[in-house]
């Protein structure tokens, strides 16, 4: 798994790399902006291997984003998940420009 996505056409002076942590942070802030959903919280343990947001960088430049969300009860789950995908996609396009990506939403809990 790669640690950075490199954008080679950015300028004539060099190559720009975007870390997977940047993609995870953008996805988290965009998900928390959607009403009716929040990023699923980590369980309170001393050591945990579970991350609610994962950005997987492929060697071909594709970024897969997996988000575990908690949905409020009484809302339409499919509409909220679609809004999350749209919000994350718009945020990624605005902040990283030409990076292709896939966004997968997993409903981890209902609050």
Description:
- The chain has helices at residues 20-33, 77-96; strands at residues 4-11, 14-19, 37-39, 53-57, 63-71, 101-110.
- With 111 residues, the protein is of the alpha+beta class.
- The protein has one domain (20-110): 2-Layer Sandwich (Alpha-Beta Plaits), CATH 3.30.70.
- The strands form 2 sheets. Strands 3, 4, 5 and 6 form a 4-stranded mixed beta sheet that branches. Strands 1-2 form a two-stranded antiparallel ribbon.
- Helix 1 packs across helix 2 (77-96).
- The longest helix has 20 residues, at 77-96.
- It is globular.
- The mean pLDDT is 85.
Describe what is shown at a glance.
The chain is an alpha+beta fold. Helices cover 31% and strands 37% of the residues.
Task: Jot down its keywords.
four-stranded mixed sheet, 2 helices, Alpha-Beta Plaits, globular, 111 residues, alpha+beta
Strand content: 35-45%
Query: Which class do the helix and strand fractions yield?
Result: alpha+beta
Shape: globular
Question: Might you state the CATH topology name?
Answer: Alpha-Beta Plaits
Number of domains: 1
Succession of helices and strands:
EEHEEEHE
Output mean pLDDT.
Answer: 85
The largest sheet, given as strand count, sense and whether it forms a barrel, is: 4 strands, mixed
CATH architectural category:
2-Layer Sandwich
- DSSP summary: helix tally: 2
Count of beta strands? 6
* Alpha-carbon distance between the two ends: 34 Å
Radius of gyration of CA atoms, rounded to a whole number: 15 Å
The CATH class name reads: Alpha Beta
Proportion in helices: 25-40%
Low-confidence stretches: none
The CATH superfamily is known as Cation efflux protein, cytoplasmic domain
